[in-house]
Amino acid sequence: MSHVQIHFAIDDADRADAIVVSLLAGHLVACGQRFGPAVSRYWWKGSIEQAEEWLVVLKTRSALAPRVVEAVVAGHPYETPEVVVVPILMGSPAYLGWIDEVTAEALQSRGGPRDPAP
Predict the structure, then answer these.
(1) From CA 34, how far away is CA 29, in angstroms rounded?
(2) What is the pLDDT of residues 34-72, one digit of tens each?
(3) Is the pTM of this model over 0.85?
(4) If one looks up domain 3-109 in CATH, what number appears?
(5) Distance CA 34, CA 77 (A)
(6) How far apart are CA 59 and CA 116, in angstroms?
(7) What do you get for the CA distance between the two ends of the chain, in Å?
(8) For a Cys staple, 30 with which of 7, 40, 68, 102, CB 3.0–4.6 Å?
(9) Which residues have C-beta within 8 Å of that of residue 50, sequence separation ≥ 6?
(10) 56 touches 10 (CB < 8 A)
């Protein structure tokens, strides 16, 4: 079984937490961590911009990644949100097993990952 971390940045801590809670409720992720705030500087529509953002790191199975990305984008306020998937190449067998255990329900319901609550 392969695993991934999914990262996204967002300027609203409450919205970040709501997205994580929704994903946890649907068993689409085993864990979500919010770090920050951090200062982000980036190009946007021809200008260099700056924002205070939080970085969220989610842990899940590779098979659930497309549904997690879709749910994060749907709940995200940005026009073009940063949502990236990073493979976990190796980890503690017990930790990776825990991810599998927690996310098993999302794979079993309806023959695949289920949609998180809005």
Answers:
(1) 14
(2) 999 999 999 999 999 999 999 999 999 999 999 999 999
(3) yes
(4) 3.30.70.120
(5) 17
(6) 15
(7) 28
(8) 102
(9) 39, 40, 41
(10) yes
Is residue 29 within 8 A of residue 68, CB to CB? The reply is yes
Residue bearing tokens 């825990």: 98
The token duo for 70 is 């879709």
Euclidean distance between CA atoms 68 and 20, whole angstroms:
10
Average pLDDT over residues 61-86: 97
What single letter denotes the amino acid at residue 44?
W
User: Could you identify the residue written with the tokens 């980890």?
Assistant: 91
Name residue 50's beta-bridge partners: 41
Query: 83 and 75 in contact (C-beta within 8 Å)?
Result: no
Strand partners, 9: 55
In the structure encoding, which two tokens stand for residue 7, read together?
């990262």
What percentage of the chain carries pLDDT values higher than 90?
Answer: 89
For residues 100 and 4, the answer to whether their CB atoms sit within 8 Å is: no
Give start and end residues of each alpha helix (H) in 1-118: 13-25, 65-75, 93-108
Rounded to an integer, what distance in angstroms lies between the CA atom of residue 109 and that of residue 63?
Answer: 14
